[in-house]
Amino acid sequence: MPTTTSDLPVVVIGAGPAGLAAAAHLVERGIEPLVLEAGAAAASAVREWSHVRLFSTWAELTDPAAEKLLAPTGWIKPDAATYPSGGEWAELYLQPLAHVLGERVRVGAAVTGVSRTGRDRIVDADREAQPFVVHVTTADGEERIFARAVIDASGTWTTPGPAGAGGLPALGEKTAADRITYRVPDLKDPTVRARYAGKRTAVIGSGASAFTALATLAELAENEPGTHAVWILRRGISGSTFGGGEADQLPARGALGLAAKAAVDNGYADAVTGFRTESIQRDGEGRLVLAGEDGRRLDPVDEVIVLTGFRPDLSFLSELRLGLDERLQAPLALAPLIDPNQHSCGTVYPHGHRELSHPEPGVYLVGMKSYGRAPTFLAMTGFEQVRSVTAAIAGDLESADRVELTLPETGVCGGAGLFDDPAAGQADVGCCAPAPALVQTGVGAPAGTVAERTQAGGCCSS
Questions:
Q1: Higher pLDDT, 94 or 402
Q2: How far apart are CA 459 and CA 382, in angstroms?
């Protein structure tokens, strides 16, 4: 171990959009980063929703420090006005960024624990003088890495919410796992398409990912008779159910809500409101029956798509002193700024290192993970977070405290766009005004995470 903490790298957990941007900012400030990615490649989570098109444009999906790092390589930024898919985001920006960072990014390195060297979370004595120690598992075994600071940008992709309304799996949910998915399915994949074609599918959730699933199932139903969706909502349908409409400054986001509304209006999906899933049971034919807390039992379905949000994995941070809101599991100072009961993407107040700090100095949760369970995250928010955090680590508090960010207003913030054509979706669209006489549902591939939390989104899912 180096003789002083300042000789140590800053460990960044996760090589997704926020993690790689953090590394770029650290390099710009002359601080050595070490990015640890559990997956087999950079942006591994984004690649898992490569079929999903974001509802943010390229202009909002690249970090300024990352662009500077890429410029000498001849990298050319894609058309700023177009909407990339998750796969395009990974291949045209995130992977080139990881490549230019070189050996600073290690893949196949899963972080299993973080602590202060020789100090569990109870010990006070000389605590802040000790470097962090990060336990890592690789194909070759286990190792320990010492760090001056830790930036956790691991996202929430690996911990989706369950079907059960109480936050725990519904009775029978695990047993029925072969018929349940927690991701927006890629219906362009022939194998996946066959799973849903001509089938009755329950979609549980009310965010952009659910909108995406409804729209794509409706498109499938146009060509595959018998395909039908049952949309399970824990609340009723109101004027805001389908998003921000004409007021949405991200047109593709508004169009996503319109497509979901059209799926219902055109008879491709039935909405079941006020339904809180208590159990999932198999009938005599092996189909699934959803039972609610109020005693209702729905007609059998063949498949279930659960899109109830994501939550942070805090298990490997258990020996650190984190200050987290008891409801959102977001940093205490940040939680009231992002509470989805009060805020959409555009009403989140700009924030930086102070709101992201914890009782354990030198530890920061950034990107989608910083929002805990709140579904209001945008990629550009993550880029500003890491700019501020890395400035604080470098001791430049003047820059760290200068947080400036303008976000698009209103709308759903948990998904992505709905366009196959990357340039499509730039006309004004609305889903809260009276519905047009005819709305086309087959406008393209879905989008889903994110941020924007979808599974992705103008979002950042890692």
A1: 94
A2: 9
Taking a C-beta distance cutoff of 8 angstroms, is the pair 51, 445 a contact?
Answer: yes
Give the whole-angstrom CA distance, residue 124 versus residue 4: 20
| β-pair type (228-232, 200-204) | parallel
Confidence of residue 439 (pLDDT cuts 50, 70, 90): very low
> How would you write 302-333 as a 3-class SS string?
CEEEECCCECCCCHHHCCCCCCECCCCCCECC
217, pLDDT greater than 90 = yes
- Residue 23, SS3 per DSSP: helix
149-152/180-181 β-pairing: unpaired
Q: What span, in angstroms and rounded, lies between the C-alpha atoms of 411 and 425?
A: 15
Structure tokens at 273: 């409101």
Burial annotation 19-53 (CB, 10 A radius, 16+ → b, else e): bbbbbbbbbbbebebbbbbbbebbbbbbbbbbbbb
Residue type, 309: G
Distances (CA, A) of 210 to 228, 314, 416: 14, 26, 11
Task: Tally Cβ neighbours within 10 Å of residue 351.
Answer: 20
Sign of the dihedral defined by the CA atoms of residues 134, 376, 249, 444, in that order: positive
DSSP per-residue string spanning 375-438: S---HHHHHHHHHHHHHHHTT-HHHHH--------SS--S-----SSTT---S---SSSPPPS-
Nearest to 450 by CA among 437, 459, 439, 441: 459
Length in residues, the chain? 462
pLDDT (tens digit, 9 = 90+) per residue, 302-339? 999 999 999 999 999 999 999 999 999 999 999 999 88
Residue 241: band (very low, low, confident or very high) from pLDDT cuts 50, 70, 90? low
Which three-class secondary structure state does DSSP give residue 209? helix
The helix (run of H) or strand (run of E) holding residue 149 is strand 149-152
